[in-house]
Amino acid sequence: MVYSSLNRIKYRFNGVLLALFCLLLTNKLQAQSNKVDSLKQTLGYSQQDTTKGRLYFELAKELAQESISESIDYYLQAKYIGTKYDDTLRVVNCLIGISELYIQLGENDQAVVFAQKALENAKGNCELTARSNTQLSISYFQLQEYERSLECDHQALKCYTDLKDTLYIAYCIHNIGSYYFGINELDSAINLYNRSLKEMSDKDDILYAYNNNRLGFTFTNQQKYEKSIVCHNNAIAFYRDKNMVYELALEENYLASVYFMMKDFKNAFKYAERAIENAEECNDFELHKMNYNLLFDLYRINNDYKNALKYSLLEKAYSDSMDIENKESIIKSIKIRHEFNEQRTVLETSKQSNIDLTNQRTKLIVFSLVSIILLLGCIMVILQKKKKHKRNQELVLELDHVNKSIKDLLSIIGHDLKDSVGNLKHFTQMMHLELLDNKSIEDLVSSFVPMVDSTHGLLDTLLTWSRNNDDNFVSKKEQLSVAHIVKLSYSHLSHLAKSKKIKIVEDIEEATMFVDKNMVQTVLRNLISNAIKFSFTGSSITIKSRVRESHVDFSIIDEGIGMSEKQLGAILNKEKIEHVDGTNGESGSGLGLSLCISFLEKHGANLSAESKKGEGSQFTFSVPMYT
Known about the structure:
The structure is a single chain. The protein is of the alpha+beta class. The chain has helices at 13-27, 29-45, 49-62, 68-84, 88-105, 108-121, 126-142, 146-163, 166-182, 186-199, 207-221, 225-241, 245-261, 265-282, 285-301, 305-350, 355-432, 438-468, 482-490, 494-499, 517-533, 565-572, 591-601; strands spanning 477-481, 503-508, 512-516, 540-548, 551-558, 608-611, 617-624. Among the domains are: 1-163, Serine Threonine Protein Phosphatase 5, Tetratricopeptide repeat (Alpha Horseshoe); 353-419; 446-624, Histidine kinase-like ATPase, C-terminal domain (Heat Shock Protein 90, 2-Layer Sandwich). A 5-stranded mixed beta sheet has the order 2-4-5-7-6. Strand 4 (540-548) and strand 5 form a beta hairpin.
């Protein structure tokens, strides 16, 4: 549903700053090329080690986006000179730079190694220790080791607190708040984000928008929508003032989603349209997809199915485009890795051999690498095709399941509703033509009562079955009384039992259980209704509960017509259950037991049954008492 998929994203400012830094470097590649040439020329004339160390470091920074292998090599040479002259600042900065480059390559284990080395060399220097911990936090986060990442954030915060650097203190607190947001400790996250805002010395920094963005998400998760709107509007104002169009479009989409949850569709449409306009300026596929999905939900809930279909198709088109873009990204990643390995191999080989031997070895290595990469590329293409084929097969199976469900529903509606509606139609026609006397009318009305009850029960089951098959239909469990739920489950069925002179016996052992109230009520109601339907006039039905360890066992026992081994096997094996009329001709859809089985599975439980033809049936299930 709208917004929910975004709730679990853990936002990290370090990664965002790194991404913005990379983008800035990409836009200045031409200027870098000129600077690199100048630095290399200066390096050729330099004699002093300290000057060479500075030039190596500058070259490493300038080549970070152009040639990762050369950049790492220059960082290592600068680090060697820094170690030689006990230049701790240069050594730590080189190690942090190398760690950042390994993150770009996706080699996060290596990124952690160099960040740890930076931290070891930074001992005694509070500022360098803080920077090293921040880099180590980013590296652990990339490895999804979130507890270690949090520990490093705390260490960095301690250092920046000692340095009284309020802006970086605010950044560290924001990071820690994002951790608590990720584990759903929302009150702690709110306190930390507000504390980060208070600590900020520069309200013009982008962290102001980040804090308001995360506060908006957190308040939304707590359903404090008015507070969420204020925070998202603060972020929108910041992005609009800084002309940050992408972030502005994203924030407007979030705000539209909040209004959607509040059912304020006027404002939801307003901000969704604004998000669309800004997304078009960015020409970002993901933004378009999010906005079209939001507009699809808005039009659908407002019953404008024509426009809902339009935006559903647009979302599908952009999803397909994103698949193509992802494939291109994979190819680009393989190319970068190939270039890294190739350049690294050439540089290392050139130091060990003469020019002729180096050329021969380089050609052989390059040919081998190209062959391996081509082979890996072919393997990846084959694997992707297999994966896509498997997914298509799964979709076909899902479609077959949906078609079968639709056919079953149509069959049920045609079989069970046709007779009821037809009889009512015939009755009303005779009433209209005044062909019935008062006695006939009373007799017909009394005979229609069980038929109407049966039809109402069928419609109720169909609606519940439909909601159960919706992906958004989830259980909401709470601690409830066994006796109370049992009473609620059969209270409105008592008139059916009385009409057949059936006695309902409660054999309840009182306890509390942790279940979804509506689901368990539906299960008990269906089982009791079936027991009434298939019981003989004047018999009894027992509703029994027993506490067993950490579970409550329920049993519904009747003295009715029972079931054959074939019918019992169909229930236990979750096969299609054939239609059987009740003892007074009551009709049934066969959906009730399927619905019971589905609801019990959501509680980690199963439905079991014991029965013999002509001797009654016993249905049993158990539910947990605690979380």
